[in-house]
Each structure stands twice: as structure tokens, then as C-alpha cells.
Amino acid sequence: MTQQVATPAIDVHGLEKRFNGKTVVQDLTLQVPHGRIYGFLGPNGSGKTTTIRMLCGLLTPDAGTGTCLGLDIVKEAARIKRQVGYMTQRFSLYEDLSIRENLEFVGRVYGMDDLKRRVGHALERLDLVSRQHQLAGQLSGGWKQRLALASCLLHEPRLLLLDEPTAGVDPMARREFWDEIHRLAAEGLTVLVSTHYMDEAERCHAIAYIAYGRLMAKGTVDEVIGRSGLVTWTVIGSGLDRIARALAEDSRVVTVAAFGTTLHVSGTDRDALAAALAPLRADPSLRLEPGEATLEDVFILLMRQSRAELRAA
Fold first, then answer.
1. Among 92, 200, 85, 197, which Cα is nearest to 144's?
2. Per residue in 176-207, pLDDT tens?
3. What letters, b where the CB count within 10 A reaches 16 and e where it falls short, cover 15-43?
4. Strand order in the sheet with 262-267
5. pLDDT at 1 over 80
6. 247: nearest Cα among 213, 211, 286, 220
7. Percent of the chain, pLDDT > 70?
8. What is the 3-state secondary structure (H, E, C) of 73-85?
9. Which of 74, 57, 13 is closest to 158 using CA atoms?
10. Per residue in 219-239, is it b (16+ CB within 10 Å) or e — as a string?
11. Higher-confidence residue: 68 or 169?
12. What pLDDT is attached to residue 313?
């Protein structure tokens, strides 16, 4: 793996992409440091995958400039591609080949040198040695995920692209996968990952929220939550289902979420939210306490804002 350097792994400005006259990504500017895990969030069809592919030279932008791994994303895209490992959401290796056979096949297709060493290292790295002769079609989702990641690492890339890599994988496999991703980042690998899981987003060093082709927010999780301006209260007591339904219809409330015997209520206007909650304070069976906004709350807020801007456009 490469050592971290001062210049960004990715540094792009004003990127745009259109398909059939429709703008999919608009005026996107972003910097990603080396050795960092950068998460991309946003609703389906928001332009996440298109953005990631432009950032790493897999798709040519219609406008904008920038570099990836020190190379021009337009003029030197072919050189960038050779340094990228791309793991798609759908398992794309051969199920009638063993783990080792799949890795050797990938290596031969791409003409990799020193293939025996590369395959052996990948098997050890992803704890696949004891299963190397097992057919890929017999593997669980978590083990298929490890095999897919191993194949992406064979050519020792400097940049790893993950497109919703843990969809349909059990919690333990997800945890182990993310532990490995953090080990790779600590060794200098830069990782771009799209995800719908808030707990995975929180494991990224920084995140970007993209909706309808526009970058709505970026930064660390704490920075994104802090800039959202959300004010949050926790409601504790009985009859919360009825209260949640009433608050969900109140325009002064942005999000209402039930967690066991508590309600998590957020809004952007402190006084307006206080007014919405005022009737509950008179109920002796309820207790209201200040809370903290979550990344999920911000996700919902940004989604509403992006929809409103789209309708106004």
C-alpha cells in the first residue's frame, strides 16, 4: 500500500454529467485525502454511483476538472483505472469455480505478474485459506463478500471503490468487513463507498450527501450533523404511538422516530419545535429531555430539502 501524502487523493471541481439531456450530477466540487474512507449517501437515483465513477476516472465528465491519484481524470483516465479496485453490489465472480480458482482466473485475465504470491496474500488477508478450495456458489453472503474484496485487491490498487458492498450481509460479516476496510485505509488505501446504512456511514472518516445530482452536505459525521441546525428532544412515557402520529403531521417537526419507550423528535426552528411540544409538557405521564440529532435525522432533512428545491426549480 502507498504512504499517505499531503496532496489529496481526489481533487475535483465543477464536475457535471448528463445522460440524454438530463443532468445527473451538477457542479460537484470535492477533495478526498489519501488513506481515508469517504462515504457517499443519498436516495436511489441521486447520482452517487455516477459521481464515484467520475471521481476515479471510470466515467468522463461533461464539464469540470480534477485529479485522482495525481492524474487528470479526463486525460489520464486509463492510468487511473489500473490503480482502482471496483467492488460492485452484485456478486460477479464464477460460482462454479473455487475461491482460489476465481482469484487465479481474475489474475490471468488481467495479466498480473507474480500471481501465486498475489493470490496467496489475498487468501491470507481475507482469512480465506481454509476455504480456498470451496466453490464460490456454496459460500454465504459474507464469505462471497470477502472473495469479492480479495479479487479487488489482487492488483494492489491505490483506490478502492465499493458500491453498497454489505447489502444483504449479516451484522457480524458487516462488522468484520468494515474492520478490514479500516485496516486497509490505515495502510494508505483510499476508499470510496456508497451505503444506505447509517451505522456504516458513521464509520467513514468523512461523508458526502448527494441528492438529485447536487452535493448537499460534506464533512465528518459530527460536522454534517452540526451544520444541519437540527434541534432534538426526547419524549419518554406512554401512548407514544398516538403522539408520534400527531407530531408527524406537524409542519414544525422534521423527524419523529420511536426507539422502544422513547420518541426522538427533531426540527430546525428551536422556538417552533418547543411550541409543537408544549402540549406534551402538561401531561404528567410524559417526560421531555434535550437530545442530540442523529445522522438519520439529517438524512431525512436533506432529502426533504432536496425535494423542495427540485419542485421549486
1. 92
2. 999 999 999 999 999 999 988 888 999 999 99
3. bbbeeeeeebbbebebebbbbbbbbbbbb
4. 255-259, 262-267, 231-236, 287-290
5. no
6. 286
7. 97
8. CCCCHHHHHCCEE
9. 57
10. eebeebbeebebbbbebebee
11. 68
12. 61
For residue 233, give the C-alpha cell: 428532544
244's CB contacts (< 8 A; 6+ apart) are 256, 258, 263
Beta strands in the chain (DSSP E): 10-19, 22-32, 37-41, 63-68, 71-72, 84-87, 159-163, 190-194, 206-211, 214-219, 231-236, 255-259, 262-267, 287-290
pLDDT band at residue 236 under the 50/70/90 scheme: very high
Q: What is the mean pLDDT of residues 47-54?
A: 89
User: What residues have CB less than 8 Å from 294, skipping those under 6 apart?
Assistant: 198, 225, 264
Q: Which amino acid is at 155?
A: H
Residue that the C-alpha cell 485505509 belongs to: 185
Q: 78-89 pLDDT, tens per residue?
A: 999 999 999 887
What whole-number distance in Å separates Cα of residue 62 and Cα of residue 140? 41
Grid cell locating 192:
470510496
Measuring CA to CA, which residue among 125, 128, 144, 126 is closest to residue 136? 144
How is residue 308 written as a grid cell? Answer: 423542495
Instruction: List Cα–Cα distances, 282 to 34, 267, 306, in angstroms.
Output: 54, 20, 36
In tens, the pLDDT along 7-46 reads 899 999 999 999 998 999 999 999 999 999 999 998 888 8
Per the structure block, which three cell numbers stand in for 153? Answer: 485487491
pTM over 0.85: yes
Which H/E stretch holds residue 302? helix 295-312
Give the cell for residue 173. Answer: 460479516
Beta bridge partners of 235: 263, 288
- φ/ψ of 42, rounded to 5, equals 155, 160
Q: What is the largest CA-CA distance in the chain?
A: 74
Residue in the block written with cell 495502510:
187
